[in-house]
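dude i think i finally got it to work??
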Amino acid sequence: QVQLVESGGGLVQAGGSLRLSCAASGRTFSNYVMGWFRQAPGKEREFVATISKSGGITNYADSVKGRFTISRDNVKNTVFLQMNTLKPEDTAVYLCAADGRSYNGNVHSRSRNYNYWGQGTQVTVSS
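look at this
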């Protein structure tokens, strides 16, 4: 089992920045591909970003490309999501997820392919 705990969400004005963290425990963190997803009220869970086990490969949704950056620290067992130039449409609960298979950009852009999930952290962007 892998336990995931997100933090760093909050209320921010449009154009502002937030940095989300997801701390992992329970298994060897570097054995897992990590992803960030988000879910707004009444909407389906949406892919945001994913990062390979070593951190050398990343993939982003078009809606966040150029504004968000995913990174990981395999010593601190933490994955991060730096969010810049935030927009009201970025408002959602942000969840991190882990999967033990080899990295695949297509596979790991789909929420159903992740085994472990955190509880999420709320991000609200005001206009």
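The mean pLDDT is 97.
im so relieved honestly
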